[in-house]
Amino acid sequence: MERPLTEHIRAEGEPPTLAEYERTGGYAALRQAVGKMTPPEVRAAVAESGLRGRGGAGFPTGKKWGFVPTGPGESRPKYLVVNGDEMEPGTFKDRRLLEGDPHGLIESTIIAAYAIEAEVAYIFVRWDYQTAAARLGRALAEARAAGYVGRKVAGSDYGLEIYFHVSAGRYMCGEEEGLLNALEGKRPTPRAKPPHPPVVGLWGKPTIVDNVETMAWVRHIVGRGPAWFRGLGRGAEGGTKLYGASGHVRRPGLWELPMGTTAREIIEEHAGGMRDGWSLRGFLPGGASTDFLTAVHLDAAMDFGSLEQAGSRLGTGAIVVLDDRTCPVGFVANLTAFFARESCGWCTPCRDGLPWMARTLRAIEEGRGEAGDLALLEEQTKFLAPGNTFCALAPGAMEPLTSALRLFREDFERHVAEGRCRYGRAGE
Amino acid sequence: MLTEQERAEIEVHAACYLHRRAAGPEALKVVQAHRGWVSDEALADVAEALGVTATELESLATAYTMIFRRPVGRHVILLCDSVSCWVMGYERLVEHLRSRWGVALGETTADERLTLLPAACLGACDRAPALMIDGVLYGDLTVEKLDRILEGLK
Ligand SMILES: Cc1cc2nc3c(=O)[nH]c(=O)nc-3n(C[C@H](O)[C@H](O)[C@H](O)COP(=O)(O)O)c2cc1C
Ligand code: SF4
Ligand code: FES
What is the pTM of this model? Predict the structure, then answer.
């Protein structure tokens, strides 16, 4: 089984230096791209691969790149931004790539910037990823000294400057436009759209924002071709995916597996199944902003299409397991409190609705729920549905809540009826 | 007054963006790295250095979690309170930090040794419950392990 993204990542210690990276074929794809391919050819390869965004929304990367105005006479400079904010609860995949393979990310970033004819790229990393930041900084200095970044990339006429931004911390910095505002030194709120960032982005110029895991593919797709990429997946969707599992499984962890691996294989084989004394009640398949699935969905392929059919989303591919000894009401109360705290306050239903919902869920969990609470909560979820807010934070927050209210209904009702929680404290 | 060192560091960041003002979050981090937190006076000095108003800069300071507008202790603990850490029992750590170490969430100990802050998912959910102290990540925490770590701090 091929593991292109993590093949050279070491379990411990420092990541490969430039020399080590080059010994395993590093920067060959870059030389090939800027030396032998035109930007439209690189864009075509990525489009043909069918690569879809790994940051949560699954938008086809080649299609997004296609929105950027290109050619002479277009508005300049153009920007490429790598999104390494990774704050989606349950998710820890980009950390592995940032810490373990900084040169891989830098090489891909240069190729992607070349493809969209950008002259400046930013790599945006969350505050808490200090190890990643230090390693990336060192790798970038090496790449610059070797002539891969700067006025003449790998001896060509193409020039690129790469800057590095460590966030001051906020979930909304990961949201595409929140991120652009953060880079401009503003509060991380979204912007009115259209126009979308590929046309009007950073400082009003065309800008592409791609997730770290998405970006990591670019050098491989250029080096080995779109057909190879498509062949890596189990089903219709190509590539491999970094899948994670956390909660009361025997071996929580992260694995690079073919796109479309089932949740059962991830949980039962790779994560070793549930710990003794705990059994699976449900799971979030792709981080905090996805609908709960239950045991009947364990054989669903973990790809964008199949999980949508199952009533959820692939999201970030990070499975969070809910077990039978953990209170589903408490679980959702925790998620909702996170979203309420991270709301940027731009839209009323999110700013005022989420804190109310978080308080109500906490009250139900603690046995202070009232008769009409569940109906009110359900009504609220509609106000925060897609289309009512500037960004996907609030609709994302509604996914686990709406599905929990449906799937774990009897738990919510019993909390209200009995005025107490029957579960012990989480983790015990 | 900003020190020469602080000014120099802020200028390095300012050069990375189209407009100086974009370096606001970075500049606040620079000051905080040297002084532990950002006072009103420091905020005004940074605003002047970047050519923005103090109010604009304050709107950033209140939006970003890692900018501290109040003094913090010598060691800052960021305790993950997101879902995987909740499932794995982070609440036990909160209770222990209060009973044994005398620090509650959002507070600083009277001897200014420890500040405890809640944090969003630290991207270490496979090692839940997790926390960071002074920028260093610790995972798979138990109260015993936490005690050993805290006993090792000055
Ligand atoms: C509240 C919120 C937070 C987000 N955080 C991240 C993040 O940390 N990293 C990320 O890549 N995408 C994040 N996204 C998705 C981005 O808006 C965007 O879709 C993504 O970076 C595009 O990259 P991709 O096409 O490669 O997935 C977030 C979205 C929302 C609504
Ligand atoms: S949905 Fe929430 S986080 Fe998103 S823009 Fe509106 S208020 Fe901000
Ligand atoms: S939920 Fe605590 S580190 Fe992710």
Answer: 0.97
